[in-house]
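INFO batch 0412 | record 1 of 1 | parsing
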Amino acid sequence: MLGLGLYPNNNIQQTVDVIDFLAARYASSSSLYAVELINEPLAPGASMENLTKYYQAGYEAVRRHSSTAYVVMSNRIGSSADPTELLPLASCLSNSVIDVHYYNLFSDTFDNWTVQQNIDFIYNTRAWQLNSITQSNGPLIFVGEWVAEWEVNGASKEDYQRFAEAQLGVYSNATFGWAYWSLKQVNNHWSLEWMVQNGYINP
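INFO prediction complete | emitting tokens
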């Protein structure tokens, strides 16, 4: 997964050159399953015009060397980003995947929310968001980042279990699967291994 900046615009070709190099190097490996072109481009700094140009060029660079590897395109993050904005492009590209990241964090929206408000948000808003970009003949959808952590103070183990269960239930509908933030992390709730071993998550 590359995170080379697309700002300014002249970085696009340099980044595509790196994609081309890596795709050529690993195309013959049976371990090459997917290539993600960039992680979390930030709106409005990464304009849709520049991002579309880059994703098209990056996709073509991968396809020059592999007809089967999935090409993953990260949705923009930021308040001005439209979660459906990549559908027109990705729907025209074979073996394409849209990567979305879902956190009940990093926004004032979630400040002072109760346990139940967070859980209801997953079952209602997150489920709707995921459904809005999931199309029968469209790109695959990957919930590439999520975590059972929140802004709730004094939450019990059972609260965390319910929050994790809600997310697992909704994100299991992602057509390309999901990935927890990290297998191992020093902060317990960000570590999938710790969450499973201590009974917070039942995969």
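INFO post-check: The chain has six helices and four strands.
INFO record closed
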